[in-house]
Amino acid sequence: MKLLWKQPYFVFGFLLLAFFLIGSFVFEWINGPDPKQTYFLMEKGRVIEAAPLSPSWLHPLGTDQYGYDMFAKIMLGAKYTIISAMGVAAVRMLIAVPLGFAIGTYWQKRRTTINSFIDPLHYVPMTIFSYLMLYPVLWEPMEGFSTTVWERIVIQVVLMAIITVPIVSALIGNEANLLYQQEYILASRTLGASKSRIITRHLFPMMREKLFVLYGQQVVETLVVFTHLGLLQLYIGGTDVSYDPMMGDPPKSIAYEWAGLFGSSFRYLQGVPWLPLGPAICFALVILAIASMIEGYTRAVSGQVKIPRRKKVSFVSDKTVEWNQQQLKEKMQLLYKEKQKL
């Protein structure tokens, strides 16, 4: 762990991620759960600009079409976005790691058959499965939601984790099977080690670094799927839908999470570009932070393996070697003569 904090990549990614995550809770604690609303900008008693307001010192990322401050909405929704992505990846790994080790050890004979069923899933976009499974949960019905925001987030996390568990399990199983064929594993099996002991004592320690990297990759993949669902108007925590046929508002995010902010404002990209670019840049920064942490962790782990220095070897000249051989030959002749005398 000490080497991690000496890696600038890991420290940079950790601080950037902590800024959004911790800052979101602090911002809500200071300013409340709702962003401030500004309809007009007044100067000398005259309206000089109406919502959506362009970026300024008062509103660094501008305001949306309803006058809500975009920076406040982004900070309020950061915790929902980041915690949901990390939760999806965590649940996915908790289920996939035991299954992967089982595929690579206990189910070796069936591994080819299992992979033949899982391989086609690589070519199907996960967004389609996510949309079909999450639509009944996240799309608000006419009578309103019967669950809370966090309950819907938990359901979404579990469903999105289950969707890609087979793919991740097959990946871990193939890697575990390669290690299971190594000579030191064969020696342990010969000495009577059980498969469960081999997994806990050999396979898991050998794959621990790769599993951490895989977890980071799953977080990034989840964030990308969130953006896709946002464009399809399925937002984290639920989509607020107005069924008023005359004065109904377009679907919007309930929790101010970034996927909802990006999806609901994407149609304003041409005229009001700061609305979708704000959450898009935040998505990019969080992905950059996770990638930096993975790079820093990889460098720290590789730095733990120290190559032993070779001992200095003194080289001798050819003349010295010939002289030693001559001395050895003379000694052998003397010993042979003494033996003949006896």
TrEMBL record:
One of its GO terms (cellular component) is membrane. The keyword Membrane applies. It is a multi-pass membrane protein. Gene3D superfamilies: MetI-like. GO terms for biological process: transmembrane transport. Residues 97-289 form the ABC transmembrane type-1 domain. CDD domains: TM_PBP2. It comes from the Bacteria. It is found in: Membrane. InterPro entries: MetI-like, MetI-like_sf. Keywords: Membrane, Transmembrane, Transmembrane helix, Transport. The chain crosses the membrane at residues 9-30, 80-108, 120-138, 153-172, 211-236, 274-294. Its main location: membrane. Pfam families: BPD_transp_1. This is ABC transporter permease subunit. It comes from Psychrobacillus psychrodurans.
